[in-house]
Amino acid sequence: MRLRIYNIFFLMVMAAAFLTGCTQNDGDIGPWFGRWRLDKMTCDGKNMDIYADADIRLVYWSFQNNIVRIAVQHDHDVEETTFGRWSQQDDLLLLDFTAAGDPVDNPGIFSPPAILHFESDEINRLTINEMTDSYLDLSYHGADGRLYQYFLKKVI
Q1: For the domain with range 30-154, which CATH number is right: 2.40.128.280, 1.10.150.20, 1.10.287.110, 2.120.10.30?
Q2: What residues have CB less than 8 Å from 150, skipping those under 6 apart?
Q3: Is 11 exposed, middle or buried (0-12, 13-18, 19+ CB in 10 A)?
Q4: Whole-Å CA distances, 34 to 25, 104, 148
Q5: Strands (DSSP E) along the chain, which ranges?
Q6: How confident is the model at residue 103, as a pLDDT?
Q7: Which regions in the chain score pLDDT beneath 50?
Q8: CA–CA distance from 93 to each of 53, 57, 137 (Å)?
Q9: Residue 39 contacts residue 153 (beta carbons within 8 Å)
Q10: What is the pLDDT of residue 61?
Q11: 89 has which bridge partners?
């Protein structure tokens, strides 16, 4: 009888831990949470075909709390990773890569990947054209005067 009570108690504790587990640090950030794959990118309406470069295999953005991680995967499992802060104001996604003090062993960790044409010394304002739980369409007027558009699909 004592073993049965112990087993029931153990199962209840495990069920409680499972049901109250947390997957999102510091609360719910809605549909932003997760990993988004950059499927397509255009410049002034023309496809940039970023994956035509044999060296680039995947570009993805990950959102959690107020941190964005943008990673560019290259051949031979080499990954260029950068971090910034993000926030949403109405129909704008604000990406901030102005943090200073890159670690000596990882320079450029707070600089956006060059392929995206973002600025590292100012807050980048992207217009949210369309957003669902699994699809994201953003546009950005670059410092070079061109209009970039990013089409992302949630993968996790």
Answers
A1: 2.40.128.280
A2: 38, 40, 41, 116, 126, 136, 137, 138, 139, 140
A3: exposed
A4: 12, 29, 23
A5: 34-43, 46-47, 56-64, 67-74, 79-89, 92-96, 123-131, 135-141, 147-154
A6: 61
A7: 6, 10-11, 13, 15-24
A8: 27, 25, 11
A9: yes
A10: 97
A11: 92
The amino acid occupying position 36 is W
34: left (phi over 0), alpha (psi -120 to 50) or beta: left
What local confidence, expressed as pLDDT, does residue 27 receive?
Answer: 54
pLDDT of the residue at 107: 60
Q: Which two tokens stand for residue 86?
A: 């993000």
* Residue in the structure block whose two tokens are 């409680």: 16
Say how far apart CA 52 and CA 20 lie, in whole Å.
44
